[in-house]
């Protein structure tokens, strides 16, 4: 727990910088940093980091060899020459404390039909302490928290007494390859904090996620003779139903899982995108469904994939057309392991102390039914990965919004954590 | 039935022009005259008609006021300024016989995945008497039949003794508004022949067709919290199932229909195009399904539409989300009545005589579970609409192909019909 004087100085600094932080976050939310379009946003951040005097490494994912690494997810339809990553290094002349990675993602998920938003999705309108916007909550407010936590130290006349890497990555929402690229590029530290919007809880364990594309081919005919054709759209629904059934079985097994046994249906299956057919009066020749399914921590990806393959193959065998024209399952995107932050780590204890000092409450743990980037650090590189950040609403939904009072307190908690974990020196 | 000498002269003429007809049809098949892209094909035809000395009226659908007329179908997403229609008038100085409309459509339906074709879809490869190609069968070969039937008369030194209109239209595969536009523009005759590929049968009765779009809106959330969101893709599937159930009920009733009682399931429902969702890990906020459903001749469109609306509303009421966010049904495309060619018309008798003379068999009637353009002439303008044409395979399917020996005989049968119906004069 930080000493009272340091905490007071940091609180004063966060206060002093608050208007600037809110304006910075608004600027950040205005970038429609959808997948493949994060470049301008990352360029702007790289300049903001450089202006702070930090050493900036800006690169694109196509420059990093990483498809041999554990945790890598395959991709289609995406140009990694456009996927800009930013790592700022804040070096301490002497390593008196423990080094730290602060990491946040700037990629956002599609906003859906704009007319279902109260305010436009990239208009960071502030009302009653909430800031609107796709990505405002997940997780641009967290990015602002880690940046302005560092700023708070400096405003308080302090600097970390160990190296800190401030990283903004992409691909968190689809592969995690942005996070992986920083590790492939060699960035290491004694701990990693990712301020995803956890409402000031620590993520104890999260499920893994796999993306896959179901691809069905049918024989189109004039619908007047539809009895001789196979409708690929209806066939695809048969496959969806088979994976729904598998999901129910997995959730049945989850009742014995050490972490997820008390969570209702922790493994979610989502047919998220569908497209098929070319003409109303032709039986559709093709249908593709982009799907997401969870897996429990401890289940090997290979096993989870095999279960999906078996479910799809079983459904296809029961269909007169698909039995001879087997559908494809294409692993395209997340192949993400679940991850458990084992209780008792030094980094968690220090974070819990900072949380307690700022909020006056014990830091609670949460179980996540979605994935986050901490798995890369914890599972594959032995770096404790802490997922802890501010509160808000509507991740991936309409009217997503960040809760500014929570963000302000969280910024202070992270500043206190940095001060405690890394130690401080005069700036 | 034409006299033997005229028939012999016409047969000789069809023979003499045959190579030219096949080459012309190949040129016609090379045009990818998909909806909205028929312009170049129609321009080429207009020039081919003008070269024959015919008077050509070339216009686009946006120039014709017709949305007040019976049989008009509403359209979305289509630019009628691109929808070129061609009407060639072959005037007889004196009306000694009966006037005639020869009409064919040049629009083709999408070819689907090209890799499922043996030959490329717009490559009119000829093998063993069959010509490959999207539209080769439905119905560019019929267009060639009507044009070269007229050419045969001329080659035989004859001309029709009454006005003949040779028309190539678009929109047959989606609305019929091309055919309707010719009537709105004032073209009338004592009969109309449309050489759709009927394998030398006459279409006695055909079902009607309606197109509609099912549009579902859902509330997207992060799939980690999917229990609080509604998946629009799955909701759309519930609506599809409801219309499948309705279709089964309609087909049950069809067992009492005067024409369709012996046809198994004459009313077809086809979800033909689907699209929905934006992201694998967001519950999809929207899904649209473009559908086609038949209706029996005699069923008013209004009643058929109401049944669809009731089925969809019933399914929505049973769904906790859709009950409060009702799905939309958008009538977009075909609102086409069924049509029965009452037996005993003069025009049919003359066509049957020509068929008998050429094929040596009695002309058989067929019942159509798809729609054709004859309905406009017969139902709304009192012009007998004959649908009779050559044989082939694969309408709307892969490896569509025209059967050239059938085309040649059909061209002669149509020439004989023209000669008998219109009478002849020296060219």
Automatic annotation (TrEMBL), chains A, B:
The molecular function terms in GO held by this entry are: hydrolase activity; metal ion binding
Peptidase M20 dimerisation domain location is: 205-316
Q: Which NCBIfam families does its entry note?
A: DapE-ArgE, PRK06837.1
Asked if the record carries the keyword Hydrolase, the reply is yes
Specify the species. Answer: Limobrevibacterium gyesilva
Say if the entry is tagged with keyword Transmembrane: no
Q: Tell me its cofactors.
A: Co(2+); Zn(2+)
Q: What is this protein called?
A: ArgE/DapE family deacylase
Listed Pfam families: M20_dimer (PF07687), Peptidase_M20 (PF01546)
Q: Highest taxon of the source?
A: Bacteria
The Swiss-Prot or TrEMBL record describes its family as follows: Belongs to the peptidase M20A family.
Give the matching InterPro entries. Answer: ArgE/DapE, Bact_exopeptidase_dim_dom, Peptidase_M20, Peptidase_M20_dimer, Peptidase_M20A, YodQ-like
Q: Which UniProt keywords apply?
A: Cobalt, Hydrolase, Metal-binding, Zinc
